[in-house]
Task: structure prediction
Amino acid sequence: MKWLATAALGLVMSGMAAWLARPQLERVTTHWFPPAPPAGTTLTTPEERQALRQFGTQVRGRLLWASNRGGNHDLYEADLSTGAIRALTSDAHVEFFGRYAPDGPAILYLRSRRPWVSFREIDGWDLYVMRADGTGARRVAERAYHPAWIPGRQAISFLRDNRLVVVDPATGREETWHDGSAEPTR
Result:
């Protein structure tokens, strides 16, 4: 009878360990298997357009986001005044982290280096820039993460290997602003 109690305790402990390991398991599995898009999604529904138009009565402008609603993670834009939604990208790779340029003529974003990369994989991304209408996409920097436009400059900052790097999107010239060997602020 003692062996039965020991076996039961072992099963309970194994189940708890498996439950606690779910985030790590997800990290391992999503490295090779992308999550499926939500079932039954379409690019636009009448309810979605109406909700965007209603939101557009309170806030003007455009909304930029990444979604797998079309079967792959792409960038989408909504015109809040009309409720119209359009895909800006359609590459087989994952695209996310889109940001409008401060003056509006361009969008920066990250594209995965392989067809599927988990968002947690910080060295699996390249930095791209395209025109605000979704055309003219081009790679600006390799192995970039968490990019941001630098206000007042035609430049983009990003992280690479614990370094803060700034790139000129027109020329691709990179400059390391912080090499990661010390704290970024004192």
